[in-house]
Amino acid sequence: FGFAVVAVLLVLGIARRSESPTVSLLLTGVIISSFFTALLSLVEFFASPYALQALFYWLMGNLGLPGWPQLAVSLPLILGGGLALVGLRWRLDVLSLADDEARSLGVHLGREKLVVVFLATLITAAATSVAGIIGWIGLIVPHLVRMISGVENRRVIPLSAALGASFLLIADDVTRSLASFEVPVGIFTSIIGIPLFILLLRRSSKVWP
After folding, report:
1. N or C, which end of the chain has less CB nearby within 10 Å?
2. Is the pLDDT of residue 16 over 80?
3. For the residues of 61-93, what is the DSSP string, one character each?
4. How far is Cα 74 from Cα 6, in angstroms, rounded to an integer?
5. Whose CA is closest to 36, among 168, 139, 133?
């Protein structure tokens, strides 16, 4: 979580100095991601063979990794961060407006964005620390929910949590049924996630020009 906060602050700090914040945010995110990937490779280089095997297994993402002791630590953080985001749902609706409109409604943009990013980072770090890297669900499910229920966060946040968890369980069941050995669910979600996300982007562009 500490390194995740450092990465987010670096990206936001560099991107806000650009004349094109959105493009700069994306490019800076790629650069910072590459930097931390290099640090991870350095950890892998110096790791013992046993630790290296465990690290590779964690990087592929697997629901078989966490036990009750790990869940006892991560679950309160995930629930607490999720409930806090639900409590901020109307502020998230305001933040989706133009900056001038949001300020006219009395919202402190910088503070509110930092709080939301902090909570999202906390939830992501707590889940990733015990289950590994299981990608694309967090991109696919919210897009799908917005296409179905609209953009109001009082519906988007709880529906995304429920549908994302259901999608993950179904993906995990599929990977356990594909072969006699267990295929890490993170590999499966990446394989099906990329084309599905492209399809959703094409559909959403027709709904929201």
Report:
1. C
2. no
3. --TTS--HHHHHHHHHHHHHHHHHHHHTHHHHH
4. 20
5. 133
